[in-house]
């Protein structure tokens, strides 16, 4: 059986366009504020949602997401709030959770995926889980029919790309550059090169993340990737706004701008 | 090389260890693991490191018997392995020189390091100066204030010190920031991790560079007494000095291995850094081990009077040694450590690092439990100059 996420990529591929994936940490800026902003994203044209599980030691994240995660943790966000957000958003768009490994292990691998599934989640992005440590994860995700989304980087060797993509389902998360999350002034040329190398080893959809924040950048990435992931840019809008409703409207507007240029020429 | 615990696949110690890192770092970790393996078997590398230890570190470090101190420890015979006499004042130099040599072999020109109290930062800056490497040290903003003298030392040695303002602004966050730097600059940069934690190969590699402590001590004790000690004691934060002295004795089943953790205000108060005594299995900073964490798997901030033990994780090999019962781990409170600190200073004329004072407090406990027949060997991991300000405050000495 296909997950909603897999069905989405089948659809966007047939439409010859890239899917737009929007990210926010659960509980940021507040529990309800996050759900409101994610809803506005979907209404603005975002195709799928990535809900972050805020973590105390986010080594893959730059200052913007670190600050958002800190706010969210201060709001008391835990597994319950992540699942509640997932339950609300998966009703309007294919949704995945992005989380560092320890919260899953603490919650219980099987229990986490059972709850993810029952709240409508399609899969999980695991930025610090290596395939070598994935034995339990693999079995459990097969039982619960959820996608395993691994992150690869420009430094990943051809041999490892083959290994990692063979364990992946849903889509492959291609990090556009060597570094952490955050907005950048331009898209690194390493992104297109990595996607090219991935095409040689996998048929899976490939989404590019890290540093994509403007409509021009999204349009550029959409020319060669199946998905465009935007996170920090949305967070910044919420951080810079005086009120939640102002932030939510800005998020909606950015989603509209980003989604308008994803058709491949 | 002892192989009893080396039945590891990809750096596992039973269920612990391994690699929990972004894919971006796998290439660098593989390169490092290979460089370490090659160096272990390479007589030229080993000779180069041995020569540095002889002419720069000041090895072998001596053994000192402390009879007056032992009067307060049930009359047991207590011997100190004097790592405090190494250049830069602690065991940290053993690992730093080894990794700096590996850095040069891998053709990298820049090292980054994390530091809490500043000892590992100072040792890293020292090795970088000696070998002509660029050095950047990440240090929690809180720690840069508490340890301003060590910040100045690192700067005098030519290193750049970057205060970390994220999270709790202590060692844990300095490691996070160093890992972010590494992910970004991995082509040119080696992350010179200062303890036996982190992703494979760090726990194994850092242990191998510190094994010299135990190897020397074993020979010295046999020469001195014709027998091995009954108990070996060492303080455990990340656990590098402890594994360094424990490891060559692991096959000697009659030798008890005791790690002393930072009990802070007491494990029962929640304000401590006793990860094995008061934590639970989890994943932090790239490895599975014991971790101080809450019900959601978020890391809990640790507390200790000793900045060098103030870490919510511990090396995975210690987690394994604990679970199989080969080593035991006990918490020592701030007050117990400071009592031992004062006693060692006044009875023997040796001011210990506060980290080391935890091991000395353990020796007082176990000496009393075992009585005068017992022979105890304590890894005296560092000297206390860096802690004079903290100790003066603690004992009410005006500065």
The secondary-structure class of chain A comes to alpha/beta
User: What is the largest interface, and how many residues per chain?
Assistant: A-B, 40 and 36 residues
Q: Could you give a short account of the major beta sheet of chain B? A: 6 strands, mixed
Enumerate the strands of the largest sheet of chain B in spatial order, edge to edge or round the barrel. 3-4-14-9-10-13
CATH architecture of chain A: Alpha-Beta Barrel
CA-based gyration radius of chain A: 17 Å
Listing every helix as H and every strand as E from the N terminus to the C terminus, the arrangement of chain A reads HEHEHHEHHEHEEHEHEHEHH
Give the structure's gist in a few sentences.
The complex is a heterodimer of chains A (265) and B (399). Chain A contains twelve helices and nine strands.
Q: What do these coordinates show?
A:
The complex is a heterodimer of chains A (265) and B (399). Chain A has one domain (4-259): TIM Barrel. Helices cover 49% and strands 14% of the residues of chain A. Chain A is built from twelve helices and nine strands. In chain A, helix 2 packs parallel to helix 4 and helix 2 packs parallel to helix 12 (244-259). The longest helix of chain A has 16 residues, at 244-259. The model of chain A has no long low-confidence stretch (mean pLDDT 96). Chain B is an alpha/beta fold and 399 residues long. In chain B, the strands form four sheets. Chain B has a six-stranded mixed beta sheet, sandwiched between helices. A four-stranded parallel beta sheet of chain B has the order 7-6-5-8, with helices on both faces. In chain B, a hairpin with a 2-residue loop joins strand 11 and strand 12 (287-291). In chain B, helix 2 crosses helix 4, helix 4 (92-105) packs across helix 9 and helix 9 (202-225) packs across helix 10 (240-246). Chain B is globular. The relative contact order of chain B is 0.16. Residues 1-7 of chain B have low confidence and may be disordered. Classes of the chains: A alpha/beta (265), B alpha/beta (399). Chain A binds chain B through residues 55-60, 62-63, 66, 70, 73, 78-79, 101-107, 127-130, 132-133, 150-157, 160, 164, 175, 178-180, and chain B through 10, 18-24, 26-28, 166-167, 172-173, 176, 179-180, 183-187, 282-286, 288, 291, 293, 295-299.
